[in-house]
Model the fold of this input.
Amino acid sequence: MELTLSQLAVRFGCELVGDPDKVVSSLGSLEGAGPESITFLSNPKFKVHLPGTRAGAVLLAAGDAADCPVAALICDNPYTVYARVAQYLRPARQVVPGIHASAVVEKDASVSPTAEVAALSFVGAGARIGERVYIGPGCVVETGASIDDDTRLVGRVYVGERVIIGKRCILHPGCVLGADGFGIAPGGADGWVKVPQLGSVRVGNDVEIGANTTVDRGALEDTVLEDDVRLDNQIMIAHNVHVGAHTAMAGSVKVSGSTHIGRNCLIAGDAGFSGHISVADRVTITARTFVNHSIHEEGSVYSGALPMDEAGNWRRNSARFRQLDKLAKTVKRLDRAAGKREEEKP
Amino acid sequence: MELTLSQLAVRFGCELVGDPDKVVSSLGSLEGAGPESITFLSNPKFKVHLPGTRAGAVLLAAGDAADCPVAALICDNPYTVYARVAQYLRPARQVVPGIHASAVVEKDASVSPTAEVAALSFVGAGARIGERVYIGPGCVVETGASIDDDTRLVGRVYVGERVIIGKRCILHPGCVLGADGFGIAPGGADGWVKVPQLGSVRVGNDVEIGANTTVDRGALEDTVLEDDVRLDNQIMIAHNVHVGAHTAMAGSVKVSGSTHIGRNCLIAGDAGFSGHISVADRVTITARTFVNHSIHEEGSVYSGALPMDEAGNWRRNSARFRQLDKLAKTVKRLDRAAGKREEEKP
Amino acid sequence: MELTLSQLAVRFGCELVGDPDKVVSSLGSLEGAGPESITFLSNPKFKVHLPGTRAGAVLLAAGDAADCPVAALICDNPYTVYARVAQYLRPARQVVPGIHASAVVEKDASVSPTAEVAALSFVGAGARIGERVYIGPGCVVETGASIDDDTRLVGRVYVGERVIIGKRCILHPGCVLGADGFGIAPGGADGWVKVPQLGSVRVGNDVEIGANTTVDRGALEDTVLEDDVRLDNQIMIAHNVHVGAHTAMAGSVKVSGSTHIGRNCLIAGDAGFSGHISVADRVTITARTFVNHSIHEEGSVYSGALPMDEAGNWRRNSARFRQLDKLAKTVKRLDRAAGKREEEKP
Done:
């Protein structure tokens, strides 16, 4: 793929400052891009690299255009436009319809003739594979699961029984959808009694699920990821969780059972959620926060991670943490005594 | 499967208040169940849904029976009885004996004729697969591993060389038993020297292991999970760890090497354990606690996670954490001075 | 394999105190080893077991030799020498050249005739498999990936498109190299726009990658693990991260995007790194620390995990944490007042 800058400006709605006939065919960083590449400036932190860029053109906001030594493509959200340009110049691998000879597709599975089932993949009885779906190598799609049009299972993905996945989703290697939720009841002398997990997982459209992320099936009702949910790697979604549309979670987030997270939330890495709580729409959770109770206010921001310190300082301060309640009581007493002295002053 | 309420009461030891001939065939939540379903009330928090339930029957404690608008099945532990009823009404998929044509079973592996090896699974030389074992699609059972009767590898499970797994276990997709422990010795200019991991993993009976959980093989002796240990997803059990019978761990718990955890412990999500420590029986660890030293008292409860706060508050308070030792010293000094003043009072 | 103690002393550069003709053939712990085994004493904590050992010989430092009841092999770093002896006595499984009949190797992949591709593995178009490489059962090596000589993919490993892996690496089951990094741009009413991840992953020589660890491909440039990096299980390396040579990370460490970690660092379990920061060489990070800013000083040590406490104490102290800023202000005020009183003293 290649485009002239004028084609690019028209297609992606940018204002061009520079040679309209210049051709770009690849993508690069502000520092690394050569003249055949288009790049972008979004984070102000990287503006220092703008004067020295050798890129063919830079996607940037109007305010940065004056400092651009090469062709500028001015737009409101350069990062988003960059993403769209990159999708255009580097389209995802085309689906090659057909079932590889080494794949195993059970008799009554329904696989669209426009879908591709790659080598050594398994599609179970009654499963339904939609139009232009890509099932990469080594995937397992169990009995009765359903994968809707244009979804891609990159490779070695596991989709459990009866799990339902929407259109245009991307599932990365090692993710597991529809393993049993963790349901155990105390059985006295017999030890634990397993609680059968009878629900399933429902995934909306345009959802992306990262490598080695797990989304468990519900105990009775379904675990739900609404449209356009974006999950990074190694995330743990427990049974009966509900994640609202457009919510994004960075790596290693853990959501305990039956928790309901709103729409358009931003959850930073390694945050954790207690079970049976509810989080409003547009909430931001910063990295490594333990969300231990419900959040009712839309758009609020919560934190919970202590910043590190040099080890010796840390040791001294964290030892004091164990005395914090005592310390607070002493301060209260001293404060009360000081107040009394003030009153008694002649 | 279906049962009359009288059959159910007899089989599961409940007292029935309601029509003995009513038939139930499925399971549901207090809110969602219809008249063909049985449900349960265990958590008092859900009691608000009892008066409005449309279920066929509710498993509940004697004290809640008066408020039940439909048939009541009175028992001591409704959640446990529910689990047993659910197992009865929704039995796990039957094993279909045989080895799928696409599976690879090496010549001297021993697979019981009552076991099922599903599509695209591998069973290595000298491995032993017991009676009615289910090896789901895409599993790897390495050389010399042993899987005892009635155990289920749901799919895409990895069982390493010589790993020994007991009866009636359930291993969920993506779990890895018997990868090498993390053993490296400093080799000076040569960099790290790998320490061969010569032990194995031994898993007792009735153990459940969650999706993408990893249990490493021991360095010299074995890593051990005793009977009825229950592990949720994405748990990390390092080499030479020993987990006592009936201990349950929620998702993302990490146990460092050579740590010994007692029997009947309850470990909440994302807790972490230092290496080479020992935890007594019946200990409870709350969510996200860092267990940094041994716990000797049976039945004790330990915590270690800070509750989150609104981001601005959090920033102010956590900045003060870095001054905590200094703060404590100032308080001590002020307190001493105040004491002196008291003494000096005329 | 077996060796006399004199052969062992010569080969591994130890001083022998004991019978040079005694033969050892296996390895054991100080407590568990029998007379046919060699063991080691490194951690002083285990010295209590030395007088009672029944091992054939003990690798130990000169200062411990006097207390050794059996043959002693004196050396400077007993644990490292033990590792080398163990590698010698228990060599890794030999590669058996050839491609298993059930494996799928695409036509233009290049597989060395000395390499082994085990059952049910997939090697994509244009991939290159070097000399004596072992591709264990159930692995996926995607299009254009390259695996250099003597590297071992233990089983069920996923190597993404164009990923480059050096010599003598070990990749454990369930690890995923080269899944897409987590790149999403806000697209307004359209929801998230995926940012194509066009970089790859480059792994140096002698790297070990643990079970279910994920290393994402870069957005534009590559994610890099330099030579002799050692990663334990369930580690998350985000896109564009760079890890310097000889750095070791214990289980469940998370490194956010574009972070640069130096050489010879030691990162303990469950530590997390913010994105876009830089960590100097030889830095030590203790367990569960959140590295939220760059570390410039080589060899420094940082911490950030609060030690647990009995649950009641914890509750009281952590409740006070929410008042810490207020508390600090009160103390400041009291301190100021006390200072003033001192000045006013007659």
Notes: Helices of chain B lie at 5-12, 78-89, 311-321, 324-344. The mean pLDDT of chain B is 96.
